[in-house]
Known about the structure:
alpha+beta, homododecamer, 3-stranded antiparallel β-sheet
Amino acid sequence: xxxxxxxxxxxxxxxxxxxxxxxxxxxxxxxxxxxxxxxxxxxxxxxxxxxxxxxxxxxxxxxxxxxxxx
Amino acid sequence: xxxxxxxxxxxxxxxxxxxxxxxxxxxxxxxxxxxxxxxxxxxxxxxxxxxxxxxxxxxxxxxxxxxxxx
Amino acid sequence: xxxxxxxxxxxxxxxxxxxxxxxxxxxxxxxxxxxxxxxxxxxxxxxxxxxxxxxxxxxxxxxxxxxxxx
Amino acid sequence: xxxxxxxxxxxxxxxxxxxxxxxxxxxxxxxxxxxxxxxxxxxxxxxxxxxxxxxxxxxxxxxxxxxxxx
Amino acid sequence: xxxxxxxxxxxxxxxxxxxxxxxxxxxxxxxxxxxxxxxxxxxxxxxxxxxxxxxxxxxxxxxxxxxxxx
Amino acid sequence: xxxxxxxxxxxxxxxxxxxxxxxxxxxxxxxxxxxxxxxxxxxxxxxxxxxxxxxxxxxxxxxxxxxxxx
Amino acid sequence: xxxxxxxxxxxxxxxxxxxxxxxxxxxxxxxxxxxxxxxxxxxxxxxxxxxxxxxxxxxxxxxxxxxxxx
Amino acid sequence: xxxxxxxxxxxxxxxxxxxxxxxxxxxxxxxxxxxxxxxxxxxxxxxxxxxxxxxxxxxxxxxxxxxxxx
Amino acid sequence: xxxxxxxxxxxxxxxxxxxxxxxxxxxxxxxxxxxxxxxxxxxxxxxxxxxxxxxxxxxxxxxxxxxxxx
Amino acid sequence: xxxxxxxxxxxxxxxxxxxxxxxxxxxxxxxxxxxxxxxxxxxxxxxxxxxxxxxxxxxxxxxxxxxxxx
Amino acid sequence: xxxxxxxxxxxxxxxxxxxxxxxxxxxxxxxxxxxxxxxxxxxxxxxxxxxxxxxxxxxxxxxxxxxxxx
Amino acid sequence: xxxxxxxxxxxxxxxxxxxxxxxxxxxxxxxxxxxxxxxxxxxxxxxxxxxxxxxxxxxxxxxxxxxxxx
Lengths: 70, 70, 70, 70, 70, 70, 70, 70, 70, 70, 70, 70
């Protein structure tokens, strides 16, 4: 049967620069082991603060990709 | 210890017919590699539209199953 | 005074066929003891899985009806 | 500029048969005046009940389509 | 009567660069046909991925503006 | 076909007196251009404050009405 | 044992005047058959519209009261 | 017909010791008048404070059980 | 730097008359110690019931104001 | 005027033992500087894990108390 | 590149004693195959009831850990 | 006792450039009077629009820091 099945994984990416970078880092890391990535939804954004300065932007993403049957 | 641990995976199934079929397709595909599936909760439903006609029903499901320790 | 008061009850219906059947079963069962049913909102949908096959569709509904004063 | 802009409208479709029919009716009606419909997300589902019998399935959908500049 | 009435429309903007650009594109496009835009709330953010690379940032915005009576 | 289709628009009404007035103002304004209004759900309520005094009550409403095919 | 148990019921009250009246009507009706009512939380507010005029304010309330063991 | 129908009631249990005790008290009280209790979901947890000390843990639970037709 | 920073505090106001009065009481009390109040969003509304009669309307508000650096 | 105004603060308490302890620690710490604490609602619960062992239970609470005018 | 990426898995732990035990069981089981567990957020809590007695506490947790590239 | 207690405050930062700048401004302002800032979660993002152009990005953040007993 040809109906598509997608799987969704949840990752947290970080960046010292921006949430765009943080989310892209998560996608790039996932892309090394998963094929056919499709959409990455942002589900949470925060910042890590140390000595009262923002040191990292973090983006939690839900990433969908084609499910590979074993 | 005998306490049960379950794991939850998130899948998107599709069907040209109905959300029941879409969700069942997701369960059937997961069932080829996972054992002891138990409950599949619907977390999102949508339709894909092409040339102004509904071409697919999609159901996003959270599927729980017995966790297999490695 | 003639202002209408409605009560809301929450039920879970099940069906081997579809969520429409599951929800309708809940309404029909409630209709044997409650009068003037009006609207049934779907608040949750899931599927029961046994031996990796979908065996039941379940719909949780909030059902409103005219409140009968005692 | 070539960046796509989509607009989202919210409709309620009804059907005596199923939520799939109800949602499809909403898409078909919208398709008479809007072009390039793309995705229809279900945001709410309920049933209308009269004389204690389900008389209609209703699906509220958010429908996205290409925005036409005036 | 002088009480203000505002209307809210929902748009999705896209950009290859950032969610700020994506959201601004949605506002700019809306501004060609609507007057007195006021506030644009972000209600959803995601990324489109092709061949495992992020190709677009998308921002869904709710945009309020003064309602023009016909 | 006779199945009803409803459309939903989102408006913000304001009043110096109450949220009932604010919501009614939104309905009355919409009623000048839309036919067959049916239900107005409150989705958000706030107050505008100037020089530390409440100067306006605001109600955001989702208003459903019969969809007119073009 | 002296630990208190409370039960919660969900009602919809209506009034031509205000949501305060609508909610109070729900409480008063419930008070004819239930004892020791305690708190009534508003969970939804809407308005019924007929011939483009607001004809009723409706408040959905969750009402807690001391549970009477049978 | 053999399709199961479940009903859901909402209770608040209290305990000076813990939320586990609070929730169990709600289940035990319900169990005196209802049969075939099945699952109790926690929907809210709080603490009552008097003279700046915690005097009670409270758990609001949604409790499902087999519906008994009259 | 001239970028504005706002702070948000959460208060509960009460009134024997209405939620408008309850919310206004919260704003007025806050206004005695805070400057430049701007917007008060309603986040929860309930009623206190004693001897089965509504004795108070309560409104929980989130109130924003200009942040004063120390 | 005698209408009560309450303020709400948000705290995170921690404990190596339980969420009850974690929440109680938050209340006790707040009680050293705030008077007339009333209710503490749990809004989030998590666990800190180090070297794959749970080292702390954390409870985020919203704590209401009588507002003291300055 | 040294930016950290975390993955999040969702598990359900059970215990006859408490939600703390249930959640800890989920963490301990996950810890046998995953490294660098960090935080476990509680997303749902319920109780299994048999013959009208609570037989198990269940905690659904989202567990984050360092992502291991393949 | 050595158990840590954190407090959470809610701020809105603004910037003409980006939500990263807006959120960082809120953290920097808070850091002048509060010690040991730890994490800043984004809870809302919007844009201010004047004469149909985006003039400011605004980020609402919940900022946690070590609680200082008086």
